[in-house]
Amino acid sequence: MPGPHRTIVLADPIDPGALDLLKDEECRVVDASSSASALNAAIGGAWALVVRSRTKVTAELISRAPHLELVARAGVGVDNVDLAATAARRIRVVNAPTAATTSVAELTVAFALMLVRELWPSVTGAKAGRWERGTRGGELAGRTVGFIGYGRIAREVARRLHLFDVRTVAYDPYVSRTEDGTALLALDELYAQSDLVSVHAAATAENHHLVNAAAFARMKRGSFLINVARGPLVDEAALLAALASGQLAGAALDVYETEPPTNQELLGHPKVIATPHIGASTHEAQRRAGRQVVEEIRRALRGEALTALVPAPGGPG
């Protein structure tokens, strides 16, 4: 273990205000977020490593950090962290599980409104000088929204959508009951009943291409898809086919199978609303994420129990 002033390396930038919380701690903060070479120069002395989504905490990177004891992910998902490699070294991993909940939930609601009302063609048409005032789109009221995955973010989306007189249903094998009136259904039944399907599942090997050609075939004709979770959950080739056939009336995507995305046919499709993985990129969410991981670092420095510890693969939790 390094000396009493342990080194915290910032591989990605976080909210500067969060770093003020470390001023009275026995630690040294090294900002290595400017380039890969800066991180390479600093990683050897790191006791804690702070990342967002850009930096990949690989086994190779970990091998060059002999003093590393803590990885702090300033966000929710930890798919950019090799958890098997951190577990092998007994390096603890923490995240900020609640930081982006509101921001991602609000983006999902915005997508739902834009899709059902068919706002995107009207926006792009008006900006291009076209005055197309024909009847188009519909209302959210009275529709059924189905959630694939019913964790914290999906529940916040449902709470907001209930104000629009929307019925909500969900599929989640890890949830046995709900408190908000959302009906739990088998996945095929969710597809059959939903006017809009919103993806909020975790990115696991089992969930790769969970929403595929067979899933689209089971959905209502003319339904919509939203994915604000992780890109590999949706088969993009199957999505394009469903849009082309009219099986799907539109899709809103904040995440993609490859990021930055290279599927120009998908990005340019007139029935697709595409944003560059910005669900958690509000000022409020980033402030919360920075503060939450810095609070975890402070607990670790003081030898206190961590409150946002990410379970190791195969471990409890």
| Overall 3D form | elongated
What percentage of residues falls in helices of 4 or more residues? 25-40%
Give the CATH topology of the largest domain: Rossmann fold
The chain-level structural class is alpha/beta
Computed over alpha carbons, the radius of gyration is: 21 Å
Please give the domain count.
2
* Largest sheet properties: 7 strands, parallel
Assigned CATH class of the largest domain: Alpha Beta
Strand content: 15-25%
Oligomer: single chain
The number of distinct helices, counting runs of at least 4 residues, comes to: 12
Q: Which strand order does the major sheet show?
A: 8-7-6-9-10-11-12
Return residue spans where pLDDT drops below 50 for at least 5 consecutive residues: none
User: What's the SSE pattern?
Assistant: EHEHEHEHEHHEHEEHEHEHEHEH
CATH homologous superfamily assignment of the largest domain = NAD(P)-binding Rossmann-like Domain
Q: Per CATH, which architecture of the largest domain? A: 3-Layer(aba) Sandwich
